[in-house]
Amino acid sequence: ARVCVGFRSSCKHDVSLSLELTTTGGNTDDSVYSGITESLTLDSCEDECVAITIHNNDSLKKDKESYFDVNLSLNGKPDGVKLSPAKSKVTIIDSTTVNLTLNIMEESVVEGSNVTLCLDVVSDLECPIEFPFEYFLSTSGQNPSECGKCDFENRTDFIVNFNKCDKQNCVEIKTKTDDTLESNEQFDVTLTRHTDDPRIQPPEIIKNFTITDELTAVVYVNISPETNTVSEDKGVLKICAEMTGCCPVQPEFSIPFEITSGTAVYGKDFRVETDRIAFKSCQNMSCIDVEIIDGESLEKTEWFKIEFMMATRTARSEHSWIDRIQLQGQVQNITIEDTR
């Protein structure tokens, strides 16, 4: 900062003034500027100037603007000389900026684990920010559970608190475990509110944390009643697939089947309106009806085979949850007896 002293009225060469210029206080200290006490002699029409060193301090102080006072005093009491002003304020504007980054400790976690999010101050200084501040984060799901259970801690007030000189602070977001086999799920973390100080540059929004599920499920295909032999006049044979593993399955899926061999003739001795057993989201059991056709002629005992295949996705999915469904009872031999 350059401070100059000179005559405001017309210059008189025969006047010599001895002055003292000092710096004091304000709302800052000598870490921001170098204070001085300087003796000046004003004996010409030229201004007398002094330089005050302002330090380039990369750390942020709480006050965006700091100031100090420059005081001017006369040595002696010369007649007709007035100091105006005798005190001036010098303002220092801190234009330093500090960037923050949001770092993910785990981009993918198994449900039941915690996701750790850390805000880091990008600086090599030991104390980059010399005052406390805070940030608020919120979470939101991209595909929340359809079974009515929360997959993660859904809050709008995750507070990341920074004390003076902190360079990193973290929060943990809990993911929740349940008894439902699910596809991989994602949730977003959004910066909702932060310090109003424009010198602290917030990070970009981070998205797409993945919660993985390691549960497996077993689907067992069975005939009701328990015997695979049915009378021709029974009318309907019910075939059910039941979840006997850990849990229901959240995504929709189906178990296709084929009639592969046998002496019974489709359309004459039996018929079925579908080619798969379909499960809706979180359904524990699903059944199909096989219509047994009662012919008018006396027939020998006949049979056919239904062969079920591994589950397939009803909806297109990029995740491998379908591979965690096991199938038991894939082959069912069904006998039709004519009791006439």
Structure description:
- The chain folds into 3 domains: 2-93, CalX-beta domain (Immunoglobulin-like), CATH 2.60.40.2030; 98-212, CalX-beta domain (Immunoglobulin-like); 217-337, CalX-beta domain (Immunoglobulin-like, Sandwich).
- It has strands at 2-5, 17-24, 37-42, 48-51, 65-74, 87-93, 98-104, 108-110, 114-122, 133-141, 158-162, 168-174, 185-194, 200-201, 206-212, 217-224, 229-231, 236-243, 253-262, 270-272, 276-279, 285-292, 302-308, 312-313, 325-328, 331-337.
- The N and C termini lie far apart (115 Å).
- It has 340 residues and is mainly beta.
- It is 0% helix and 48% strand.
- Residues 2-95, 156-214, 218-338 form the Calx-beta domain.
- One of its GO terms (cellular component) is membrane.
- This is Calx-beta domain-containing protein.
- Pfam families: Calx-beta.
CATH architecture of the largest domain: Sandwich
Q: Which structural class fits the helix and strand makeup?
A: mainly beta
In which range does the helix fraction lie?
A: under 10%
Task: Report the count of strand segments.
Answer: 26
What gap, in angstroms, lies between the N and C termini? 115 Å
H and E order: EEEEEEEEEEEEEEEEEEEEEEEEEE
CATH topology descriptor of the largest domain: Immunoglobulin-like
Mean pLDDT: 81
- Assigned CATH class of the largest domain: Mainly Beta
InterPro entries: CalX-like_sf, Calx_beta
Domain Calx-beta: 2-95, 156-214, 218-338
Organism: Geodia barretti (Barrett's horny sponge)
Pfam family, one: Calx-beta
